[in-house]
Specification:
The protein is an alpha/beta fold and about 325 residues long. It has one domain: Luciferase-like domain (TIM Barrel, Alpha-Beta Barrel), CATH 3.20.20.30. The chain is built from 14 helices and 11 strands. An 8-stranded parallel barrel has the order 1-2-3-4-7-8-9-11, surrounded by 9 helices. It has a two-stranded antiparallel sheet with strand order 5-6. A hairpin with a 3-residue loop joins strand 5 and strand 6.
Length: about 325
């Protein structure tokens, strides 16, 4: 059966608040959680950006369900450090931690002052880093000189079963690219037809039978107007498409560009409604495509969202069949 997870947005909430939210989500019936990993928020109004790796240890200790993290190795994190961090969480919490690897965004990586490369180079660095992380998690002693350098590195504290490494992709092209080395796929939700194309590309390129995780952004509140207002305030900067989203460096840059985002544009990109039945049906369509659908309510009313969806939406989704990749 498809799991319904809760997305913990470090950009929007202080780490202590997020810890309380993930505990509340588990109690409300969410079956798993997923965490972002940001150095900067998407907007000055979001105003937070805790260190996700520290938070993961606390969150896994405070809950019993699986929790995953998306991270970008090869820039602010050397792949060996990512591997060590993942191995430690995997050893402490067997079978509960998974890691998705992505090619990164300038807002989180470029602050170190290094050259921020184009997409093809970022993909090459991602694949190289993923292979190094996998080798270290398997117990190998690794020496490598390429886009990153590693000399006689070995992890001594490792889980019995290596942490699953998923590939993060928002386009069919990237989904096909990660399928060869990834243990599963993490992609974004939204229009089911678009998601189906990404999932299909992953499966056709070597991902058949591997887990599919979908992070689905939505906005819900007591009225349509409140849901739209909350989404405009918190998430308009984050929907900027194309290479722009990966290349802007400062939260203020996203806020500036977000002035061009109209309510109509936002409603085309995010599911915004007070209608719980409408949200349920949209989520159910994604359940047919993935093994886990992580719900990210982009507004600030997290407690109300968790309690309401836990009581009135999740029970009707638990009986939905999972995708063919289950």
């Amino acid at each position: 059966m498809t799991r319904i997870g809760f997305h913990a947005s470090h950009e929007q909430f202080a780490p202590s608040h997020l810890l309380a939210l993930v505990k509340l989500a588990e109690a409300a019936g969410f079956a798993s959680a997923k965490s972002s990993d940001h150095f900067h928020p998407w907007s000055e109004r979001q105003g937070q950006s805790g260190f996700a790796w520290s938070w993961m240890g606390a969150a896994l200790q405070a809950t019993r369900f699986p929790i995953g993290l998306i991270s970008a190795p090869g820039y602010r994190y050397h792949p060996a450090i990512v591997a060590q961090a993942a191995a430690t969480l995997g050893e402490m919490f067997p079978g509960r931690f998974w890691l998705a690897l992505g090619s990164g965004e300038a807002i989180n990586e470029a602050f170190l002052g290094d050259h921020w490369p184009e997409k093809a180079e970022r993909n090459a660095r991602l694949q190289e880093s993923a292979l190094l992380i996998r080798a270290l998690l398997s117990g190998q002693t690794v020496t490598h000189r390429g886009r990153v350098t590693l000399v006689e590195a070995r992890l001594y504290s490792r889980p019995t079963t290596p942490v699953p490494l998923y590939g993060a992709a928002v386009s069919p092209e990237t989904a096909a690219f990660v399928a060869g080395w990834a243990d599963g796929l993490l992609t974004v939700g939204g229009d089911p037809d678009n998601v189906a194309r990404v999932v299909g590309a992953f499966r056709e390129a070597g991902g058949e039978g591997k887990p599919i995780h979908i992070q689905h952004a939505l906005a819900w509140d007591s009225s349509d107007e409140a849901a739209l207002a909350g989404a405009m305030d918190q998430w308009a900067p984050a929907i900027i498409g194309g290479e722009v989203a990966w290349d802007l460096r400062r939260p203020a840059d996203f806020d500036h560009v977000a002035q061009l985002v109209t309510p109509e544009i936002l409603q085309d990109r995010i599911d915004i409604s007070a209608d719980l039945g409408w949200h349920r049906d949209r989520i159910a369509a994604l359940c047919a495509l993935g093994d886990t659908v992580h719900l990210h309510c982009v507004t600030r009313n997290q407690e109300a969202f968790i309690e309401t969806f836990g009581a009135r939406v999740l029970p009707e989704l638990r009986d939905k069949p999972a995708s063919a990749a289950s």
